[in-house]
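Input record, target 12 of the design panel.
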């Protein structure tokens, strides 16, 4: 796995910008009408007037650095301002906007939090303030990958979200190692090491390397225990055990379950292939059994999944049944149409306030 060095040899500087958005960028964006609804001033009783940028809500946009890029102190926010900026981005005022679709919330927070990460990096801030900031941003990307998994690719790009989450976890791994070398621990290290494993289930070599250099206390943590049990079920293709762990995690460790949900489509496909080879041609399995075995949201969800794989489903005694060995399972080249949010997770993440709480607080194991 390619490792991006976010804490590379950047020129050490100290930011002096005390606003969430530098004055120069604010002027340019105001004149170009380049700002989000979350940054607009309240128009009050005159909604027909041209929207204005609110200096108190404006947040620095992300601009990709190039070889010729030069960062100057007045454009860089110091850690205290970056923390205040994240407090705004991950607040109820932004995440809880009921009049704005979550994919628009996501696009705004993704861009502005990326700029926050960039300002931490160019200043080489490596203390507990930076650790907490990267942890909060990583949680946002994890929750988003579940909430938006059914959105069209025009509204949400899972590859890009995974890339940004991976970058956060890489930086956190470096920060955790640095803090340990300095004799300081990080209270949430086990949580985010576990997310790193969950994000890389399909890379056994990387997981092996990660486990070999993992501190014993982290390896023995409840978070890691959950993930290793899920990984064992995943690699052994113990389908029922995997979905029992997933069901348990949906209540006890919501963010872990959000990442586990990324694996369920492939697990279901492989499980249905196995079932399709069992028994005699024409034998039938009730769809209710498939729902229990593979954790489908409903019987209808299971039937739709089978149908998309080309598996015959017939009504017998008023109930749908999967017909075995009639055809080979046809795995679609693009699995996006098979992706669904988990109903169990949706019940927990019921409302924007729950999303907000998941990002603010450490993932729990009960």
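The sequence produced for target 12 reads:
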């Amino acid at each position: 796995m390619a490792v991006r060095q976010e804490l590379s040899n950047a020129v050490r500087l100290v930011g002096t910008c005390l606003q969430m958005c530098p004055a120069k960028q604010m002027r340019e964006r105001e004149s170009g009408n380049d700002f989000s609804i979350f940054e607009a001033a309240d128009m009050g009783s005159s909604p027909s007037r041209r929207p204005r940028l609110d200096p108190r809500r404006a947040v620095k946009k992300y601009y990709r650095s190039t070889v010729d890029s030069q960062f100057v102190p007045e454009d860089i926010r110091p850690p205290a301002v970056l923390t205040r900026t994240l407090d705004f981005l991950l607040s109820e005022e932004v995440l809880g906007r009921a009049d704005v679709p979550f994919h628009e919330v996501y696009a705004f927070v993704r861009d502005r939090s990326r700029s926050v990460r960039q300002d931490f990096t160019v200043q080489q801030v490596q203390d507990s303030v930076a650790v907490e900031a990267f942890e909060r941003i990583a949680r946002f990307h994890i929750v988003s990958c579940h909430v938006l998994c059914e959105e069209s690719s025009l509204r949400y790009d899972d590859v890009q979200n995974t890339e940004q989450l991976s970058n956060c976890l890489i930086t956190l791994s470096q920060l955790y190692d640095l803090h340990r070398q300095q004799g300081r621990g990080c209270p949430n290290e086990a949580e985010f090491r576990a997310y790193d494993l969950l994000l890389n289930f399909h890379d056994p070599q990387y997981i092996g390397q990660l486990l070999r250099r993992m501190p014993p206390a982290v390896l023995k943590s409840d978070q890691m225990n959950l993930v290793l049990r899920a990984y064992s079920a995943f690699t052994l293709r113990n389908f029922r055990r995997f979905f029992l762990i997933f069901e348990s995690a949906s209540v006890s460790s919501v963010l872990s379950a959000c990442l586990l949900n990324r694996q369920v489509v492939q697990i279901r496909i492989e499980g249905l292939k196995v079932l399709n080879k069992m028994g005699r041609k024409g034998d039938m399995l009730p769809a209710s059994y498939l729902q229990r075995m593979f954790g489908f949201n409903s019987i209808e969800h299971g039937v739709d999944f089978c149908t998309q794989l080309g598996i015959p489903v017939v009504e017998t005694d008023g109930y749908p049944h999967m017909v075995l060995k009639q055809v080979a399972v046809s795995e679609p080249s693009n699995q996006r149409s098979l992706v669904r949010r988990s109903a169990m997770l949706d019940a927990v993440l019921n409302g924007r306030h729950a999303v907000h709480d998941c990002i603010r607080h450490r993932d729990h194991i009960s």
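The beta strands are 284-286, 313-316, 319-323.
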